[in-house]
Amino acid sequence: MDTQRIIMQVPLPKTLKISSEVVARDMGFSSLQEAIRVFLRKLSARELTFTLREPVERLSPRAEKRYLKMLKEIKEGKVKTKSFVNVDEMMSYLNA
User: Fold this and answer.
1) Helices in 1-96 by DSSP H: which ranges?
2) Would you state the pLDDT for residue 69?
């Protein structure tokens, strides 16, 4: 084990540090520093993977009902639709 130690300073907002400490303890780490050490060990061993997910945005019941009605009207041909071959054609139509 490497016995040579360094101190790494990372500037961050105080609120981020405090909320991260709470989560680290909730996850079973003895401290935020321990969580960071585990993270860095996994990172340096290329054993760390990330998954990014966007939160699902839900419509309100009222908006969902409104959009379902609009889709139904389009399918029934009650709404006039327009198709374009390219963006320039669409922009000309919108600017007219």
Assistant:
1) 14-26, 32-44, 61-75, 87-95
2) 93
Identify the domain containing residue 72 by its residue range.
Answer: 61-95
Query: What is the average pLDDT across 40-50?
Result: 91
Cα torsion 85, 87, 92, 93: sign: positive
Cα(56)–Cα(52) distance, integer angstroms: 13
The answer to whether the beta carbons of residues 56 and 63 sit under 8 Å apart is no
Are 79 and 67 in contact by the 8 Å Cβ rule? The answer is no
Question: For the chain, what is the radius of gyration of the CA atoms?
Answer: 27
Q: How far apart are CA 21 and CA 25, in angstroms?
A: 6
Q: How many structural domains is the chain composed of?
A: 2
Is the full-model pTM beyond 0.85?
no
Residues present in the chain in total: 96
